Amino acid sequence: MADAGDRGLWSAAEAYEGYMGRWSRRVAPLFLDWLAPEPHRDWVDLGCGTGSLSAGIIRACQPGSVLGLDTAGGFLEYAAAQVPGATFRVGDAADTHLPPGVFDHAVSGLVLNFVRDPGRALREMVRLVRPGGQVALYVWDYAGHMQIMRSFFDAARPIDPGSAAFDDGVNAPICRPGPLREAFEAAGPVDVEVTALDIPAAFASFEAYWSPFLGGTGSAPKYCAGLDPEVRERIKEAVRAALPTGPDGEILLAVRAWGVKGTVRA
Q: How far apart are CA 99 and CA 259, in angstroms?
């Protein structure tokens, strides 16, 4: 039986699915189409979380193998239950302890801005890939067209300037095309390319949009969890007023991620 900590991590995985995981699942196929991989290749998914990208690889890429690594045991348990055909284990994206040059693709979805040393993590991705193989990842466009988050933080800041401490649009400058390209080139890959990956995000009502912000997992939900209820309610109403809402209460937002890929030198 899982202990309380494991149950907590499982709950966090479910909360993350409601907040961001479902959008990650929709971005992953666009990312993989852009990579255009050959079949029967070996993949490692660093910071695999709840397994959205690993699942996409299994479905679309005819892989030889898929290994997902993450530091959160509950996320890995969730991923293993959702993604048959892949292997999941505990591992640090910046220090995997795996042998060098054993994969054809090292990929990562929505993780780079959360690792302590992005340059080290990118160098580890390169180390794991055979010469001529590919390293690639994607990150949310926090400062621009990730409108789920932008709508929240743009409304919160006039009410509580302290919200900026949780705003990845402020705190993750690497999540832009120029810095992504520079970081990749510094890590060693050649033929580096960056692209926009766009999907719509539709909500049937404001409550459908708002409820994931109460789950406690992710930057904005963590911020919400620590707020005085009166301040949280003021922010909620400011977000409601700012969102583009249709005549039946529906909300349609844009969601953008930036993808970057490069080739390991032969």
A: 26
Q: Do the domain assignments include residue 90?
A: yes
The number of domains in the chain is 1
SS3 category, 239: helix
Confidence of residue 14 (pLDDT cuts 50, 70, 90): low
Q: What's the rounded mean pLDDT across residues 63-78?
A: 93
pTM over 0.85: yes
Residue 19 or residue 112, greater confidence = 112
Q: What Cα–Cα distance (Å) separates residue 192 from each residue in 35, 101, 137, 144, 258?
A: 12, 19, 12, 22, 13
Q: Which residues contact 175 (CB under 8 A, 6 or more apart)?
A: 112, 113, 139, 140, 141, 142, 143, 168, 258
Q: Could you tell me if residue 66 is inside a domain? A: yes
97 part of a folded domain? yes
Return left, alpha or beta for 164; rule: phi > 0 is left, psi -120 to 50 is alpha, else beta.
alpha
The domain in which residue 74 lies consists of 4-144+169-199+255-263
